[in-house]
Amino acid sequence: MQPIIPPFPVARLRRTRATPALRALVQENHLSVKDLIWPIFVTDVPGADVEVASMPGVTRYTVEGAVRAAEMAAGLGIPAVCLFPYTDPAGRTEDCAEAWSPDNIANRAIRAIKAAVPEIAVMTDIALDPYNANGHDGLVVNGEIVNDETVECLVRMGLAQAEAGADILGPSDMMDGRIAALRDVLETNGHKNVTIMSYSAKYASTLYGPFRDAVGASGKLVGDKKTYQMDPANADEALRLVARDLSEGADMVMVKPGMLYLDVCRQVKDTFGVPTYAYQVSGEYAMLAGAMNNGWIKREETILESLLCFRRAGCDGVLTYFAPEAARLIHAGA
Ligand code: PBG
């Protein structure tokens, strides 16, 4: 569609920018509190429920703290929280068995939040890294991240999360075949309405660094994640991954990181027209927070502009560590 622009001065494109009222009328995209998913870190490691050094303003919570955080988020109208466990690095094993324990920290937090704040959707992370001795998302056998054996672990992990009451499972592991396997185990165990938001296009990005501090995986990772996460140079491959995950039973798909991959968000939305989300990841948060805290960029405007871009790129929502602050700004009419 080519816009028809008559010659100047018939067309003066500044007319519709002249007043706040006119600008409001022609505003194309809107950010709503309903678009926000808030990632939170939970831990039962004594003394670990403190601010994450590389994510100023982001705190790890105890289970009780996470319940209060979820209550606060629900009060602000945020529809979902997404839980990430910080486990004791000393207790991580090669077989990752804690990942599917019904009483691991993530599953206890799911149950506590669903009991206290049933109206908020609880999303989970499915990947072995918080429970793995070597920091990888999959099982490592003879130095190789093995796919099919990992999928068996992920299925157990996802089922335990569903049984704890999770509303949205978020497989972030990038193994092949995991969505079909998860969907199958959910159907055969009576969890017909548990949704899957697949981390379909997850890039091997440097921007996950602060997150790995937050979950205690920094320094633990042996090698890199390039044999399973995507090459930042690729976009066609993202469309193949999304198509594959949809065909296997994903209800929603995600692009991650966010701000550096807005072109991929737009292509996914235009190609498939399915619920599409982006993750504004820890490194994006850290870059913005660092500049804001130094007074180099304005806090409130930057938070909102950095989230509105996802709506413009076609996303239905965004996972962001700024969620509560953004919600307050939206409610205040900023
Ligand atoms: C775990 C996982 C990661 C993130 C979400 N789930 C880290 C990784 O893949 O290394 C990153 C989130 C962020 O950086 O905010 N597989």
Automatic annotation (TrEMBL):
<dbReference type="InterPro" id="IPR030656">
    <property type="entry name" value="ALAD_AS"/>
</dbReference>
<keyword id="KW-0627">Porphyrin biosynthesis</keyword>
<comment type="similarity">
    <text>Belongs to the ALAD family.</text>
</comment>
<dbReference type="InterPro" id="IPR001731">
    <property type="entry name" value="ALAD"/>
</dbReference>
<dbReference type="GO" id="GO:0006782">
    <property type="term" value="P:protoporphyrinogen IX biosynthetic process"/>
</dbReference>
<dbReference type="GO" id="GO:0008270">
    <property type="term" value="F:zinc ion binding"/>
</dbReference>
<feature type="active site" description="Schiff-base intermediate with substrate">
    <location>
        <position position="256"/>
    </location>
</feature>
<dbReference type="GO" id="GO:0005829">
    <property type="term" value="C:cytosol"/>
</dbReference>
<dbReference type="GO" id="GO:0004655">
    <property type="term" value="F:porphobilinogen synthase activity"/>
</dbReference>
<keyword id="KW-0456">Lyase</keyword>
<comment type="pathway">
    <text>Porphyrin-containing compound metabolism; protoporphyrin-IX biosynthesis; coproporphyrinogen-III from 5-aminolevulinate: step 1/4.</text>
</comment>
<dbReference type="Pfam" id="PF00490">
    <property type="entry name" value="ALAD"/>
</dbReference>
<protein>
    <recommendedName>
        <fullName>Delta-aminolevulinic acid dehydratase</fullName>
        <ecNumber>4.2.1.24</ecNumber>
    </recommendedName>
</protein>
<feature type="active site" description="Schiff-base intermediate with substrate">
    <location>
        <position position="202"/>
    </location>
</feature>
<keyword id="KW-0350">Heme biosynthesis</keyword>
<dbReference type="InterPro" id="IPR013785">
    <property type="entry name" value="Aldolase_TIM"/>
</dbReference>
<comment type="subunit">
    <text>Homooctamer.</text>
</comment>
